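User: quick one, sequence for these tokens?
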């Protein structure tokens, strides 16, 4: 099994295989047949070998999602029952839920799980929801499979949108536009190498392991714990941002403007802005397909009179769900609830500032806001890391 972007050999092989696609795009053509062959070869490298059971799992998963989405599209073209819609969403989520719950109950890896199941599930659920909204009016089985199995983003995103993908899939960029995309794509891959293979690698090598051990020995209030908190936060950023740069850069080289995932998140002046810059495709997915729908439903049904209460409940529910998505452990749940509470507090502060317009607002207050946000985020990553579980409960 070859983990995508986990080493230079994968990148070299991938670039060699993509060369004919680059030549075609420089001529204004997209070689879709060859692109699909490359996808199948790379998927075989990712899910083959000793981990062949993951290959079987993804084949069964794709067949399940295709049947579900195709069936719902046929149904939605004639009817629009809410219970059928909710049922379709639950069935789309079911394989992911089973893969998350099985290890907790049976203490072994789920046979339905595979690398990237979460991100494929986000795509499938998105399809059902946008069909319900009438945004997807045509359905092509081949386009759906190509969207679902788009190999640059298959394991960890970014999460693309079907309508954007389909439009670019059949309308390759002009030669002039593609030259710019190719330049950006190569730059992103080079920057990704710096982030993942150099900065993240050396932070992990010289800081994470040592500080993790000494923090467990010296306890929560030691300097080692706080040094670990900052080191782990920076490692998490550079490792994940590096991977995302590989995925987006590869997509650009293939002529697809997949959305970026990170935009200087640690310079955010508040926690809401942080989530508009950190893992952006995931944040926007949860915003569009969970938060907004939950708010709309509660307002429509007049569940509560206060819009502030509705907003706060939606935020807490959203981040609780995001925490559970990471894993069914207390520290992932606590991580999610911590961010939900932080955004509720942030919204309360914004409302307070609107009522008290005489409060100071300058470079110093902005710098203080960035400092507070950065430390709040780093503490949440300390929770996320699981070290507190070992420190207090084991």
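Assistant:
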């Amino acid at each position: 099994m070859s983990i995508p972007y986990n080493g230079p050999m994968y990148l070299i092989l991938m670039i060699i295989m993509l060369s004919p696609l680059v030549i075609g795009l420089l001529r204004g053509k997209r070689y879709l047949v060859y692109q699909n062959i490359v996808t199948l070869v790379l998927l075989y490298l990712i899910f083959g070998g000793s981990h062949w059971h993951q290959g079987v799992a993804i084949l069964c998963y794709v067949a399940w999602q295709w049947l579900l989405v195709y069936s719902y599209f046929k149904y939605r073209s004639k009817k629009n029952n809410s219970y059928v819609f909710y049922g379709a969403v639950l069935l789309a989520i079911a394989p992911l839920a089973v893969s998350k719950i099985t290890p907790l109950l049976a203490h072994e890896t789920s046979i339905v799980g595979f690398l990237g199941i979460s991100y494929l599930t986000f795509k499938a659920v998105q399809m059902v929801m946008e069909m319900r909204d009438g945004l997807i009016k045509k359905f092509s089985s081949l386009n759906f499979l190509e969207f679902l199995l788009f190999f640059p983003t298959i394991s960890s995103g970014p999460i693309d949108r079907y309508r954007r993908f389909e439009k670019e899939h059949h309308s390759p960029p002009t030669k002039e536009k593609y030259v710019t995309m190719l330049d950006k794509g190569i730059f992103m891959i080079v920057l990704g190498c710096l982030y993942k293979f150099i900065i993240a690698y050396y932070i992990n090598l010289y800081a994470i392991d040592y500080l993790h051990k000494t923090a467990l020995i010296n306890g929560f209030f030691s300097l080692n714990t706080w040094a670990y908190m900052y080191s782990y936060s920076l490692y998490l950023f550079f490792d994940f941002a590096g991977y995302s740069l590989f995925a987006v850069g590869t997509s650009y080289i293939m002529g697809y403007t997949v959305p970026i995932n990170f935009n200087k998140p640690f310079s955010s002046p508040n926690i809401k802005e942080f989530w508009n810059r950190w893992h952006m495709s995931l944040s926007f997915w949860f915003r569009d397909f969970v938060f907004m729908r939950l708010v709309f439903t509660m307002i429509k049904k007049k569940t509560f009179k206060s819009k502030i209460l509705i907003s706060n409940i939606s935020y807490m529910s959203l981040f609780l769900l995001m925490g559970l998505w990471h894993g069914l452990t207390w520290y992932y749940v606590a991580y999610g609830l911590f961010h939900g509470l932080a955004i509720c507090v942030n919204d309360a502060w914004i409302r307070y500032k609107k009522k008290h317009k005489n409060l100071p607002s300058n470079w110093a207050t902005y710098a203080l806001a960035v400092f507070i946000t950065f430390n709040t985020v780093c503490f949440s990553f300390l929770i996320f890391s699981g070290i507190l579980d070992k420190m207090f409960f084991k």
